[in-house]
């Protein structure tokens, strides 16, 4: 139920891809105005992520997710009714507040409620729902293409927002937040509801209480403490690379790039649907891989394929435009890139931060990682079309391919394996100091 926040996140970020083809003509948008309409949601997401982290410390994870659902509904309705560019930009900013809040708080809520052995796949369910939202967005973009259809595309997001808000009313609060607030009995009751019958929830509560007592809740200033730096570096680094490797440049602008490269509107929109399908497949495979293979190994196995596919796509755009061979090479390499990148890093990005960041600063630290995702995403959204005009499609995609290589080196050097470990055991390894990666890999 809480992962429906991911579906809304995926739909509201992905729907602009199909809407933009008609929107730019209906509102007579320049390339720069198109970039602003696409990217303002990311500016809102940065603000929403910061706000959600602060509110979650005071009011709890569950109430923040409910508030996010309300903001989603308001933003979607406002975007559908927007009479001009200014009001549409404002509505997209409001939607961004909800996207940032969802991407920050839903993974934390799931991580703090899930048992260690299946925590990975439950958290990746959020990313899978993001992919499902993007697929639905592409299907709606294809089905509702035509002048004015973009208003219906935006309005449809109100329905899942209502379902999320109502559904969260019946869900419990995070047991770890309850323990942190001194509400132990409520936490015991929640865990008894969430764990299989016969589970010794008292033992888990004792472990949570021990860690919470040793590290009382902190704020932004506590992020500067030396012992936290390895976890913060990993969380922020993976957040940045999830965007620097090029995923959202493709998700946002694929139909526009393909139309400008000589593909017809219908073919470009159908290719967008294919991208959505590949994102869903990547989400399913990633959900299985992170618990069976491990977080670190999943990235090291699949990111090389992501970089290679992006490089092949860059080379394809160097060839003569319009040939059948070039078009098929672009489409196949585009789909392969989405699949490998989706499994290799998109399945991990919303999982790794809430897992390795200590309870004491999980709110502000997760906010920082989430702001990094949206900040770098904003940079990509604002520069993608401009970069293509400046250095061409091939040059732009070669840069993204290089970023995949740099990401692989970062994972190999810094990212620890957290599969099957409790959040408290991960935090104790961080406290011991030394190499965070080696402490977890060797313990």
From TrEMBL:
It is found in: Cell membrane. It comes from the Bacteria. It is a multi-pass membrane protein. Keywords: Membrane, Transmembrane, Transmembrane helix, Transport. Gene3D superfamilies: MFS general substrate transporter like domains. Belongs to the major facilitator superfamily. Sugar transporter (TC 2.A.1.1) family. This is Sugar porter family MFS transporter. It comes from Streptomyces virens.
């Amino acid at each position: 139920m809480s992962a429906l926040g991911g579906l809304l996140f995926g739909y509201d970020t992905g729907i602009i891809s199909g809407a933009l083809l008609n929107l730019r003509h209906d509102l007579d948008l320049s390339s720069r105005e198109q970039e602003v309409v696409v990217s303002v949601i990311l500016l809102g997401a940065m603000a929403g992520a910061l706000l959600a982290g602060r509110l979650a410390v005071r009011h709890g994870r569950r109430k923040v997710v409910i508030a996010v659902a309300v903001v989603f509904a308001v933003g979607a309705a406002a975007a559908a009714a927007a009479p001009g560019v200014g009001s549409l930009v404002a509505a997209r900013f409001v939607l961004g507040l909800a996207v940032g809040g969802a991407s920050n708080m839903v993974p934390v809520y799931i991580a703090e409620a899930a048992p260690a052995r299946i925590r990975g796949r439950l958290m990746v369910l959020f990313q899978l729902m993001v992919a499902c939202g993007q697929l639905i967005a592409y299907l709606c973009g294809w089905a509702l293409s035509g002048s004015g259809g973009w208003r219906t595309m935006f309005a449809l997001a109100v329905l899942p927002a209502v379902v999320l808000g109502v559904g969260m009313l019946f869900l419990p609060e995070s047991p770890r937040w309850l323990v942190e607030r001194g509400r132990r009995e409520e936490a015991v009751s929640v865990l008894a509801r969430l764990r299989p019958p016969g589970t010794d929830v008292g033992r888990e509560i004792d472990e949570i209480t021990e860690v919470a007592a040793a590290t009382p809740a902190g704020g932004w200033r506590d992020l500067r403490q030396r012992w936290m730096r390895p976890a913060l570096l990993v969380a922020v680094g993976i957040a940045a690379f999830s965007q620097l490797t090029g995923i959202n440049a493709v998700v946002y602008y694929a139909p526009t790039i393909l139309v400008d490269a000589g593909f017809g509107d219908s073919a470009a929109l159908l290719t967008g649907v294919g991208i959505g399908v590949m994102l869903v497949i990547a989400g399913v495979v990633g959900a299985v891989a992170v618990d069976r293979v491990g977080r670190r190994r999943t990235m090291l196995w699949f990111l090389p394929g992501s970089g290679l596919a992006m490089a092949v796509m860059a080379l394809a755009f160097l060839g003569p435009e319009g040939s059948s061979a070039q078009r098929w090479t672009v489409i196949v390499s585009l789909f392969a890139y989405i699949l490998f990148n989706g499994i290799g890093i998109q399945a991990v990005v919303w999982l790794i931060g809430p897992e390795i960041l200590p309870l004491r600063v999980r709110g502000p630290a997760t906010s920082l990682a989430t702001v990094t995702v949206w900040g770098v995403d904003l940079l990509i959204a604002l520069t993608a079309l401009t970069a293509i005009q400046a250095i061409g499609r091939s040059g732009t995609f070669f840069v993204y391919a290089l970023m995949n290589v740099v990401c692989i080196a970062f994972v190999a050097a810094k990212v620890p394996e957290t599969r099957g470990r409790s959040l408290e055991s991960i935090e104790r390894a961080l406290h011991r100091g030394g190499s965070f990666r080696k402490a977890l890999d060797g313990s």
